[in-house]
Write a structure and sequence with these properties.
The protein is of the alpha+beta class and 99 residues long. The protein has one domain: Beta-lactamase Inhibitory Protein, Chain:B, domain 1 (2-Layer Sandwich). It contains two helices and seven strands. The strands form two sheets. Strands 1-7-6-5-4 form a five-stranded antiparallel beta sheet, with no helix packed on it. Strand 4 and strand 5 form a beta hairpin. The radius of gyration is 17 Å and the shape is elongated.
Length: 99
Amino acid sequence: MLRPLLCLTLAFGLVSTSFASSTYRCNSKLVSLGQSLYEVRAKCGEPISEQILGYKQLTNEYGHTHEVQINEWIYGPKGGMYYYLRFVGGDLVKISSQR
């Protein structure tokens, strides 16, 4: 009795979680981590949503700090999936998807 419930719980957990990737295919083009906001927009077009999530302090190798913006763009739905692209300082740092 407990085993089927555990399997059902695990299956639901897999469906509702997000998945991380290092690439995202939009149209016939591919974007990958490290690309800029401008490159992604040129390849994928306008996202359905753009949000500023906040700011982050970065320190370079010389000890200088500066503040950069954290953005998240959402594309989809594509095959029932939404794709979340996170940018830090204008560079793509995370690609995740969720049903």
